[in-house]
Amino acid sequence: MNSYLMFAILLALALLQSTVMPRITVLDVHPDLLLMAVTSWCLLRGAQEGMLWALVGGVTTDLFSGARFGVCTLSLLIVSFLSSLGQSNIFRFDVLIPIMVIPLATLLYSGIMLALLSVLGWPVDWAQSLTRLVFPSMLVNTLGMPVVYLLMRTLDRRTGREEIAW
Amino acid sequence: MQDFRSRFLVLGTLALLVVIGLIFDELGALGPVEGVFLQLTTPIQRLVDGLAERVIETSQSWRDLRDLKRRNKQLESLVDELMIENVRLKEVEAQNEDLRKKLNFVETHPQYILKAAEVKGRVIGYEPSNFMSILVIDVGKRDGIRKGMPVVTARGLTGHIHAVGTNWAKVLLIIDPSSSVAALAQSSRAPGVVSGHLGQELFMNYIPQEQQISVGDVILTSGMGGNYPKSLLIGQVTEVQQRDIDTFQRAIVWPSVAFTQLETVLVITSFEQVDVEEAIDIERTDELTPAPESAAEPKENGTSAP
C-alpha cells in the first residue's frame, strides 16, 4: 500500500476515534476503531505491515490523547505483534478468526495501557476498570469487528502489499 | 523461528523508540511536535466534528422530535438558570449570615466568577481511549488560555486546562480518576475532596465523620488548595456511605454538568491559581533562613530571629 494512503487512512481513523467514536456509546464505552483496524490489518497482512500501522496509528492517537506520549503506541505495537501471529493465508477470508482475536486483543491492549498509565502515575482502579470498561469494550469491539474487518479486507484486495525492509 | 526472531527484533526496536519518545515527552521536549501536529489537525478535527454533529442531528430530524428537543432545551436552560440562581441565592444567604456573625470581616464576593473574564471554547475532540476523560477545545494560547485555568459551563464546574497549544487546549474533566477538587456541601459546609471515578458519577471523599451530609445536598467548590474558584457548582449528593469504623464518610455526587453533551465550555482566564505547596515551601525557607543583620539588631529584646 502506498505510504501516503496509509498515513491518510490512519490519520482519518485517529480523527474519527477522537471525534465521532466518543459520540457512539454502547454499555458506557465507545468502540476502539483504531484497535479493530490495526488488528484486522495484522491478520490480513502480517507483522511487518501490521506493526507499521500500529506505530503510525498509535503515534497519531497519542498526539490527540491527554495521556503521556507513547502509551497508546506501545500498547498497539505489542498487540499488533501478537495479533500477527494469528495471520493465516488459509483463513484470511474467514470472519470468525478476527471475531475470536479481537476480545483477546482488547483485553491485552487495555491491560498494557492501564499498566503503563499506572506506572506513569495515573490512578488506576484495576477492578473497576476491568468490570466497567475493559469487559464491555471486549464485547463492543467484538460486535464492531466484522464490519471493520470486511472494510479492511476490501482495502486489502484493492491495494498491493508493501515491501518493507526493517 | 528465524522469522519470529526478526519480528521480535523489530518489535523491540520500535518499543525502544517509543520509550525514548516517552522519556522526551516526560522532559517536555515533545511539546513543539505535539503543538505543530494539533495546530495542523485542529481545523480538520473541527470540520470532522462539525460534520459528525450535523450527520447525527440530521438523522434525528423528525419535525416533532425537533420541536420537542427545542422545547426541552428551553426548559433545560430555564432549569439551569433557576438552579444557578438558586445556588447563588443560597450562597448569598449563607454569606450574609456568616458576615453578620463576623462583623468587619471582609470577604471576596463568592460570585466573582461572574466578574471573571471568560473565553468560550468549542469542543472539537475527545480522549480517544476509554480510560481517561479529556476534551479538546478550539481555543489556546492565542486566546489567553494557560495551563491550570478552570473550565466551566452554565451548569457548573467542568474541569481544568491540562495542556495548551496555540489554537487548542486539552481539558481534564472532573470525572477523570486523576482529578480532585476541594469541595463542600452547601447547606452543612461539610468539607471533602471530590474526585473522578470511572463512569459519570463523582466521589466526595474525606468528609469528617462528625459532619452532616445527606442525599440531595448541593456540592460546591470550596476554593481550598487554590486550584479552583470558590462556590462553583459541582453536583448533588445521591448517596452517602457512612460506617462507624471508617475515619471518613464518602458521598456519591451526580455532576451538574452533562459531560456527554458538551458543545461549548467557558475558560475562566482571570482566576489566579495559588500553588499552596510552593507557598508552604517559601514559608519554611523563610523560617529556616537567618534574618539579615540589619533586622537582627534588636537582639536585646530577645524577639529577633536566631
Describe the structure.
The complex is a heterodimer of chains A (166) and B (306). Chain A is an all-alpha fold and 166 residues long. Chain A has a single domain (3-21, 30-158), classed as Arp2/3 complex 21 kDa subunit ARPC3 (Orthogonal Bundle), CATH 1.10.1760. Helices cover 71% and strands 0% of the residues of chain A. The radius of gyration of chain A is 15 Å and the shape is globular. Chain B is of the alpha+beta class. Among the domains of chain B are: 11-59, no CATH class; 113-274, Rod shape-determining protein MreC, domain 2 (Thrombin, subunit H, Beta Barrel). Helix content of chain B is 35%, strand content 25%. Chain B has four helices and twelve strands, in the order αααββββββββββββα. Chain B has a six-stranded antiparallel beta barrel with strand order 1-2-5-4-3-12. The longest helix of chain B has 39 residues, at 63-101. The model of chain B is unreliable at 102-117 and 293-306 (pLDDT under 50). At the A-B interface, helix 1, helix 3, helix 4, helix 5 and helix 6 of A face helix 1, helix 2 and strand 1 of B.
TL;DR?
Chain A is mainly α. Chain A has six helices and no strands.
* Count of separate DSSP helical elements of chain B: 4
Beta-strand percent range of chain A: under 5%
Assembly type of the chains comes to heterodimer
CATH class type of the domain at 113-274 in chain B: Mainly Beta
- pLDDT < 50 runs, ≥5 residues of chain A: none
Choose one word for the global shape of chain B: globular
Summarize the main sheet of chain B: 6 strands, antiparallel, barrel
Largest interface: pair, residues per side: A-B, 54 and 49 residues
**Class of chain A, according to the CATH hierarchy?**
Mainly Alpha
The count of DSSP E runs of length 2 or more, i.e. the number of strands of chain A, is 0
Q: What's the average pLDDT of chain B?
A: 76
The averaged pLDDT of chain A comes out at 83
The CATH architecture assignment of chain A turns out to be: Orthogonal Bundle
The fold-level CATH name of chain A is Arp2/3 complex 21 kDa subunit ARPC3
Number of helices of chain A: 6
Structural class based on helices, strands and sheet pairing of chain A: mainly alpha
Main sheet of chain A? none
Helices and strands of chain A, in order, run as HHHHHH
CATH topology of the domain at 113-274 in chain B: Thrombin, subunit H
The CATH superfamily of the domain at 113-274 in chain B is Rod shape-determining protein MreC, domain 2
